[in-house]
Structures are given as C-alpha cells and as structure tokens.
Write a structure and sequence with these properties.
Layout (H helix, E strand, L loop, with lengths): L2 H15 L5 H4 L3 H8 L3 H28 L2 H20 L8 H33 L4 H16 L2 H11 L2 H13 L32 H23 L1 H8 L3 H25 L5 H20 L4 H30 L4 H29 L2 H21 L8 H4 L1
Helix pairs in contact: 1-6, 1-7, 4-6, 4-15, 5-6, 5-9, 6-7, 6-14, 6-15, 7-12, 7-14, 10-15, 10-16, 12-14, 13-14, 13-16
C-alpha cells in the first residue's frame, strides 16, 4: 500500500473528528453559554473572534513547521493541544469568573482548538498535494468523503447531547476522549518530505513567483469563505429562531449536505484536476452566492432544499480550491507554508465574521448581515469574470 494513503487515512480521521471543535458544534450550545456565564452574543462572539485573530499570526509559522518536522510529531502535538483546550473550556463555569474572565478563557481555549483544526487541514491538504501528484482527483474525493461522513454526525450529536447533558460535561468528555487519539499519530513514522521527485517539477511555480493580484484575489476569496462560514455557523441556531425555521430540521440538513458534498467532490475533482482553476473558482463563488440567498428564506421548504444543494456544491468546491487549485496555481514546493498563509487568511475571516454577525444581531438584524454578504459575493464574482484566463496558467503553458 502506498505510504501516502496511510498518512492520508490518519489525517482524515483526525480532521473529521475535529468537527467537535468547529463552529457548527458550538452553535447549539451558544445560548446556554450566554445564560450560564451571563454573557451577551457580542461578548461570546468577541472571544471566539479573537481566537481566530490570534491564529492569523501563528498559522504561517505552523505551515513552515510542517515542512520541517516529522508528520507524527506535528500531529501528536496538536492532538494534545486540542484535547487540553476542551478540558480547559469545560471548567469555565466552575471557576466563578467575571464576564471578562470568562471571555478570556473562551479566547484561550479556542486559540488552541483553532490552531489544531487548521493544522489537521494543513497536514491533509499538504499530504494530497505532495504524495498524490498524479492521483489528486481521487485522493481529494476520498479525503472529502470520509471527513464529511465523519463530520456530518457532529451537529446532530451535539444537538442531541445538549438535550441530556450540560455543555461543560460534553466538552470535558470530548477533551478526555481526544487524548486517546494521540496513539494513532505514532503510526506516521516517515518524514513528510520523503516524496517522489516526480511530484515536484522545476516548472512548478513557487510562492516567490506568484502573480500578486491573483494570489491576493484567492486569499480574499478564502477570507470571505471563512468570514461567512464562521459567522453563519456560529449564529445558525439563533438565526433559525429569528427566521422562524425549525432548528432540529436544520441540524439534520447537514447530513445530506456532507454526503452530497463528498460525492460532488469526486465529480468536480475529476473535472477541475488539470488547469481549470478559473472555472473552479467561478463555481465556488457562484454556489456561495446561491447558499446565501437560500439562507435568507430558510423558513420555507424550497429555500431549505436550495440551501442543501448550494451548500453541498459550495463545500465540495472548497475542497477543490484547497487541494487542487492551490497546487495548480502555485505548485507544491513549500506547500505547508502556502497553506499556512491560506489558513491565516481563513482565520482572519473567521475572526471578523463571527464578530460581525454577533454585532449585527445585537444592533441590526441577521437579514441585513446576509444581504451585505450577498452583495460582496456578487462583487467577487464580477471581479473574477474580469480577470484574464491567461492569469490562471503557468508561463510555460501560455507559450
């Protein structure tokens, strides 16, 4: 068995189960946190947003770290950080802290969680880019399928657990169970840079030779993706209450979304696997626009169906952009550093988005916040259409 598949299986398991630390897993507990800790939505969102902001400054260095050390050590470190962060968060209610102290604890705990979640993503996408130079389409599909199948259960599990257990007990159990995951990291014994030389060719561009405007556009697109994802997923259940949607039904929607998205990844991975970066970005932003419009009317059955469809395509194209488009445009040399910068922009977007939706909830409305996101997505689509197709191919291909 190709060693790259072993590494990919381990990283896929870690990233899939890290869904318990992602934004959608916090949303069902958000109102309970506000009530138990005497915090407002803005205060909770501020602590959560600041954790993403802190990650922005660290992730480029984490990406470089991935390029330099053994994958087993890289993964083990962040498994321990992830578990410790949940145990820390579970103790907030027992410490009788002031509101400011509670926000500080949320900030500290979620810094560790966000760095760990992004580190698993860096390892997974770098593994595909480096080990699967000729099989990236199938590798992306398998990776997306199993991470999403595992992650699809998270919203429903958290929602169900929340009906029976206190949020602090849920987080403590996750933290303790995660320490058991550390043992699988020792199955990764090879250095992450032991790759076939055919996967890195001299014609592939490096970070230093990127077209500046194209690089900035891709980073802004990733920023906006995280901006809205973080804000919407964090506030999804309060948003459903305001819009008159069934929260339980919406939580169940994520199972078909994850499944359809993983299937779409196989299809689009084959379509966009070679030098079709502009088309991939177009479909990514277009599906995002459809998802936002559907979310505005989520109380209606037709809007829920549209939300499931567009979100599935949108999430599948996110996998394509991260694992196929970036290597197509920028090569695989120093792939860890490249993804480190990409996730720095993702964290910056997550920080701004969660705070943005919290403020809009307290001082305006969720509907207005979504309308502004629709306008920005439309602007990104227009800018993309104006970029010349030759900007998306290497200089060698242009000749």
């Amino acid at each position: 068995m190709h060693y790259g598949w072993i590494v990919l299986c381990i990283v896929t398991l870690l990233e899939g189960l890290s869904g318990f630390g992602r934004t959608i897993a916090l949303s069902p507990l958000l109102q309970d946190l506000c009530n138990d800790l005497s915090l407002s939505m803005t205060q909770i969102s501020s602590g959560y947003a600041l954790s993403h902001l802190c990650a922005v400054f660290v992730l480029p260095f984490i990406g470089k770290l991935y390029d330099k050390i053994q994958t087993s050590r890289f993964l083990l470190f962040f498994v321990l950080v992830f578990g410790s962060s949940f145990i820390l968060l579970s103790q907030i209610a027992n410490l009788a802290l002031s509101p400011l102290g509670s926000v500080g604890m949320i900030l500290l705990g979620y810094i560790g969680i966000r760095l760990s979640v992004h580190s698993y993503s860096i390892a997974g996408r770098a593994t595909i880019a480096v080990w699967f130079s000729h099989q990236r389409g199938i590798a992306v599909g398998c990776y997306a399928l199993f991470t999403m199948l595992i992650g699809s259960m998270v919203p429903s599990i958290i929602y169900g657990l929340r009906q029976r257990y206190h949020w602090s007990h849920i987080w403590l159990a996750i933290g303790l169970l995660w320490f058991l995951m550390g043992s699988i990291c020792f199955l990764v014994k090879s250095h992450n840079r032991m790759v076939d030389s055919s996967s890195c060719t001299s014609s592939e561009p490096t970070i230093g030779t990127l077209r500046p405007f194209l690089f900035i556009f891709v980073m802004i697109t990733l920023f906006f993706k995280a901006f809205q994802n973080s804000g919407i997923m964090l506030h999804l259940f309060p948003m459903c209450t305001d819009f008159g949607a069934d929260k339980k039904l919406i939580s169940l929607c994520f199972m078909p979304i994850y499944i359809v998205s993983s299937l779409c990844t196989f299809i689009f991975g084959h379509i966009f696997k070679q030098n079709k970066a502009k088309g991939a970005l177009f479909l990514f932003i277009f599906a995002d626009l459809g998802m936002l419009i559907a979310l505005k009317g989520i109380a209606h059955t037709s809007a829920i169906i549209a939300f499931v469809l567009f979100t599935s395509i949108y999430w599948s194209m996110n996998n394509i952009v991260a694992t196929l488009v970036l290597p197509i445009l920028f090569g695989v040399k120093k792939i860890g550093a490249l993804h480190g910068w990409a996730y720095a922009f993702v964290s910056l977007g997550s920080a701004a988005g969660s705070l943005y939706f919290g403020i809009m909830k307290d001082y305006a409305s969720y509907q207005l916040s979504l309308s502004l996101c629709v306008a920005f997505a439309g602007l990104l689509l227009l800018i993309l259409l104006c970029i010349k197709p030759t900007s998306f191919v290497s200089d060698e291909e242009a000749l």
